[in-house]
Amino acid sequence: MGLLSDPSISTQSKLVAGLARHVGKVCLLLYVAGVAWFFCLALPEFNHGTYLSENALSPGLVYPEIRVDANRLAIQLLEELHRERKDHVSTTPHAWIAAKMNEFGLETHTHNYTLKYPFGGGKEYYGKNVYGILRAPRIASTEGIVFTAPYRAASSVHTDISPSVPLLLAFADFARRKNYWAKDLIFLVTEQEQLGMQAWLEAYHDGDREYEVNKTYLWSGNLPARAGSLQAALNIEVQDLEIDYVDVRIEGLNGKLPNLDMFNLVQRIMAREGIPSGYRQGPRKKRRHSRSAYEQNLRGILSMLSSQSSGVPNGNHGLFHRYRIDALTIAAARKPTHATLKGNPASAAVPLLKAIEGIARSLNNLLERFHQSFFFYVLVNNDRYISIGDYMPALVALVACAFVKAYLHWFMLPAATDLELEPEPEADAEVEGEPEEPFDRPYGSVMIYITATLMLGFLCNVLPLQQYFLEIPMGAAPLTTSVLSFLSLLGTVLPFVVVLPPGGLELLHVAFLLIYGCALIVVGLLNFGLGFFIAVLTVPLVISLETKEENWSSSYRHSVRLVTLILNPMMIVYVIVLGMTFYQFPELPMQKILLRAATAAMDASAYGLIDSVIYGNFLYFIVSTVFLPMWIMCWTLALSKRRDYADYLGFDEAPPPPRPPPNPRLKKTN
Amino acid sequence: KLNKMRMELAWIVVIHLVGCLADPQDTSVLPEGFVDATQRSTHTNNWAVLVDASRFWFNYRHVANVLSIYRSVKRLGIPDSQIILMIADDMACNPRNPRPGQVYNNANQHINVYGDDVEVDYRGYEVTVENFVRLLTGRTQNGTARSKKLLSDAGSNVLIYLTGHGGDGFLKFQDSEEITSQELADGIQQMWEKKRYNELFFMVDTCQAASLYEKFTSPNVLAVASSLVGEDSLSHHVDPSIGVYMIDRYTYYALEFLEKVQPFSKRTIGEFLQVCPKRVCISTVGVRKDLYRRDPHKVPITDFFGAIRPTRVSTHRINVTLANEEDFIAQQDEEPLKKPFKIVLEPQFPSEFFK
Fold first, then answer.
1. Cα(A488)–Cα(B133) distance, integer angstroms
2. Contact flag A364-B96 (C-beta cutoff 8 Å)
3. Which DSSP letter does residue B40 get?
4. Which secondary structure element, helix H or strand E, spans residue A204, and what is its range?
5. Are A41 and A394 in contact (CB under 8 A)?
6. Rg, C-alpha atoms of chain A
7. Average pLDDT over chain B, rounded to whole?
């Protein structure tokens, strides 16, 4: 035994001693390295060209067969739809869509769903989706591909995308005549933006589920017909049949992305049809190359990561990712009316129809779900990407600081031998008491403390949705915000009320560092943008946080406390919203901006909660249940409230009760 | 027969030695009669084992490859009972096939290689390495249908054609397992030892195909591969109406050659080995001749791709039962020599009636 463990002790203590001297430098170096690595990612040496890795897709091997008659049909359908829209200003012309699908020979069904809005006195909203299934002619209905078009009523505040439905129907009519489909094709028209999509997907995948009356907000019902396991989905949002460019949207729920092969497939087929398309594609303009390629790449990365980090899908495709269905949106923008080059309207949509056909045929060739290429990547630009293996080191370097510190603090906990590290007599006293009773660390009380903070975080999720809170005549935003602020306030007060027993702070520090590191790595793996931005923001604080009193000037400690206060999750949300408000309305006076940002931040937290209960977005959950408790721990450590032996006895009845006090006899002898 | 061959070999050595001793300049001259005897076809029947080891719709071309070779050998006279066709995936009935029940090997679509009379012996998941090795070595499981057995003998010329996805030293079967070149060489050695072939022509069209015949040690094997080690074999062209690659380059040019071969043609294997030069094939065709005794340029291609057997016309009585019957021997001695006569070959099908 000794043979194996003895030598390690000496090297370990040497390592710890060395580390203790240089920990600040090491952490700073790691932090700088992580950030520098991130900035390097925009360099061409750190990213790779995209390529198609799935052989089965064989994109562009077939000549498109869709002809100008499909375009004529689309134009005719669009005219009909415009007539219908006059009668259905704020509703969807379900009957017309269903009739057309029937006419084209699809197996047409409708799907009803109900939303019981948690706030606002339990108001109910009803919605209806229409979908038609084209059964694969020569194979059992075991797999399907979905083509969806969201329908927006004429009264909608969003951009008009009504031509999507005629385009979808025209393609359905074409596809109906073909015999080579190996998967069922589902043509789906949803309403109420993402809500309809979410309801349809839930109904498709667990339609026969029993609902719990109080906990279910979206009653998605069941579907009368299905088409096997869904392999891929394409969401079509077209502003006009005469298109200028196609914006390919990929960010889904919680920052999930479709397989890189799917994006590459769409890019390749769009290129073949001569449609300018890409991720974040904008209108064609005469570019003045004022920005260097590096800056453009960096902007591309940052914009993708920031839109991913909110976890809100930027199109109906995003909800598919939850069910492991690769999906993306092709959003075609209208050609500006003043465009000098007017195409022939009679064949304007043919390239887009051909592209949809090409994508459909490639997806039809799939033999299994997308699995070859990356699911975790960052697009630098349309033909370059960074894989997870290349971007994770940036985050890992940042988080490594926490683990290095945790290691160091763990070995300094017993501190029996390292007397020179603990020169203070107070610390000395503890240290000498320890070796005689090595298990005297207050594990229990620290555990209880951590549990209490986690409970506070958990309550943020649960409390705003409780029946008695919902009955208060209050809007969703003020209600959520007041519950959140109340709980944060509790967290702020907690370290003043509960003071941990001796050694507890150090132990809490180690626990905090470990939880923090693990949480960031997990969040970063799922949603790199979110994890990385939080890490960049908070790692400096975590590095500078120390529980020891010695060699700390009071101004330093006060500034750390101030920074900790500023980094409260609610403050961060407010600051982000403030920044966005300032960016959007720069003309407003400062006072108004502050006020507007406050209401917007309140709305944002309420939306976050609603998103988490209806769509399963985990941003609200992570912030409230993981980062708020960690902030409370952080705040506790920054305050470093210690009890000395005198008020130790007085705190016996304090909630939550810590472990029974360590043997007082030992203390007295010292 | 083996003894006879050993004798022949011994004779070669002896003659060679004598030749060397007599005239060191002239080693290549062998007695004409001997050369003739060795160059003459020695087989009595023909077999073909045609394997497509790959799956999936995008590997349509491999099915087209193997069906094209099947079509050629069948046209040149090997009956279905002596062709073992292994096809791992059914392209004709794939739901993605816009032309159900048909497989083409050319974008012009003039030959449906999946015609009405294709007999697939091993299909789908039956195409495994195990079944292939069992088939070659004759160790089929009890109850295997006769059509699934390679019932060749010491007089059989066997053609083995493999296509699929390969790498250095292996050929992938069904996207789940591989046969290695060592296993292949072992299988062929067992075939030789079990007297299951007279001569064997091994033809393979995959990436790095030459690696598959590297380990062969068995005699009388002639091997040709579409690409050398380290090279990819490439496909020839796409049919944009079906959306797949139609056929591989090497097989395409091999077929171009085979399509011109008629059952009685004088084309030789030597010519066949030269099809698909690097200019059109892009990969380099690999040939292994060191195990083969005959000069490929004197071997008719129908020795492997057809079923044209050497025929000897005899005017004598032939005793097929007991050679030592005394009255037969006596009678034979008495029988007078017949005059030389002329043979007229009647066409098998009286086509002139339909003109």
1. 72
2. yes
3. S
4. helix A193-206
5. yes
6. 30
7. 83
Cross-chain CB nearest to B238 (options A61, A136, A365): A61
Tell me the HSE value of A293 on the side-chain side, using a 13 A CA sphere.
9
- CA A439 to chain CA centroid, nearest Å: 41
Are A81 and A291 in contact, with CB atoms under 8 Å apart? no
Cα separations in angstroms, A102 against A84, A110, A131, B148: 17, 12, 10, 50
- Using alpha carbons, select from B86, B66, B77 the residue that is nearest to residue B305: B77
CA B340 to each of CA A411, B313, B315: distance values in angstroms, whole numbers, following the listed order: 111, 12, 9
Q: CA–CA separation, A457 vs A491, rounded Å? A: 9
Lookup: tokens for B46: 């023909």
Amino acid identity, residue B84?
I
CA–CA distance from A439 to each of A414, A435, A444, A643, B169 (Å)?
Answer: 10, 9, 11, 20, 62
Task: State the best of B56, B58, B241 to mutate against chain A, taking most chain A CBs within 10 Å.
Answer: B58
Spell out the residues 6+ positions from residue A296 whose beta carbon is closer than 8 angstroms to its own. A381
Q: Which residues 60-79 in chain A show a CB within 8 A of chain B?
A: 61-63
- Phi–psi pair at A249, nearest 5 degrees: -105, 130
| pTM of the predicted structure, to 2 decimals | 0.83
**In A454-594, at which residue ranges do the beta strands (DSSP E only) sit?**
none
B165 flagged as catalytic: yes
| Cβ within 8 Å, pair A56-B240 | no
- A295: tokens are 């800056």
Contacts of residue A158, defined as CB under 8 A and 6 or more positions apart, other chains included, come to A152, A193
Q: Tell me how far apart the alpha carbons of residues B187 and B170 are, in angstroms, rounded to a whole number.
A: 14
Q: In one letter, which amino acid is B345?
A: L
Structure tokens at B257: 């050659």
Residue A647 half-sphere exposure toward CB, CA atoms < 13 A: 9
How far does CA B285 lie from the centroid of its chain? 17
CB atoms under 10 Å from CB of A498, counted, come to 20
Interface contact flag, B94 A181, Cβ < 8 Å? no
Residue indicated by tokens 């129908």: B302
A367/B95 CB distance under 8 A? no
Report the alpha-carbon distance of residue B64 to residue A3 in Å, rounded: 68
φ, ψ for residue A259 (rounded to 5)?
-55, 140
Token look-up 């071969």 returns: B261
Sheet with A277-279: list strands edge to edge. Answer: A218-219, A107-116, A124-134, A184-190, A143-150, A229-238, A326-334, A243-249, A277-279
A310 touches A619 (CB < 8 A): yes
CA distances from A119 to A125, A608, A613, A618 (A): 12, 13, 12, 19
Q: Which of B91, B96, B102, B175 to substitute to test the interface with A, most A CBs within 10 Å?
A: B96
Annotated catalytic residue B207? yes
Query: Distance, in angstroms, between B177 CA and closest chain A CA?
Result: 18
Contact residues, chain B, for A137 at CB < 8 Å: 95
Judge whether B95 is closer than 8 Å to chain A, CB to CB. Answer: yes
Look at residue A651 in the predicted model and tell me its pLDDT: 44
Task: State residue A606's pLDDT score.
Answer: 87
ipTM over 0.85: no
Q: What pLDDT, on a 0 to 100 scale, did the predictor assign at position A431? A: 40
**What's the pLDDT at B3?**
63
Nearest to A139 among B95, B98, B243 (CB): B95
Nearest to A234 by CA among A372, A103, A361, A51: A361
Rounded mean pLDDT of chain A?
84
For residue A652, what are its two tokens? 């016996």
Q: How far is the C-alpha of A242 from the C-alpha of A80, rounded, in Å?
A: 17
Q: Cα dist. A268→A275, A276, B219 in Å?
A: 10, 11, 52
Q: Which one of the listed residues B43, B62, B165, B236 is annotated catalytic? A: B165
- Cis ω before A656 (30° cut-off from 0): yes
Q: Which pLDDT band holds residue A586 (cuts at 50, 70, 90)?
A: confident
Residue of B20, B43, B62, B207 marked catalytic: B207
